[in-house]
Amino acid sequence: MGIGGISIWQLLIILAIVIMLFGTKRLRNMGGDLGAAIKGFKNSIKTDDDKPEEGDEDTAEKPENNSK
User: Which residues, 6 or more positions from 27, have their beta carbon under 8 angstroms from its beta carbon?
Assistant: First the structure.
């Protein structure tokens, strides 16, 4: 048995059909595009975590000068 009751032969047949439908060049391009999208997503999350939120400095309590 393979993954979830699907044998290795069934997976190979599905892979062969996908390759015949799309071709190897198109699948390679789709894989590269997907990889670039994931990389860009990770970079954007990483840079968002590094940036301080706007207004964080303003929320800190500052002592007020009430001398009259």
Answer: 18, 19
Residues in Cβ contact with 26 at an 8 Å cutoff, skipping those fewer than 6 apart: none
Question: How far is 34 from 28, CA to CA, in rounded Å?
Answer: 10
Say if CB 28 and CB 19 are below 8 A apart.
Answer: no
Place of tokens 């800190």: 60
Q: What is the number of other CB atoms lying within 10 angstroms of the CB of residue 3?
A: 9
Q: Which amino acid is at 54?
A: E
Are 18 and 27 contacting, i.e. CB atoms less than 8 angstroms apart?
yes
| Residue 6 β-bridge partners | 3
Note the pLDDT tens digit of each residue in 6-57. 889 999 999 999 999 999 899 899 999 999 999 999 999 888 776 666 655 5
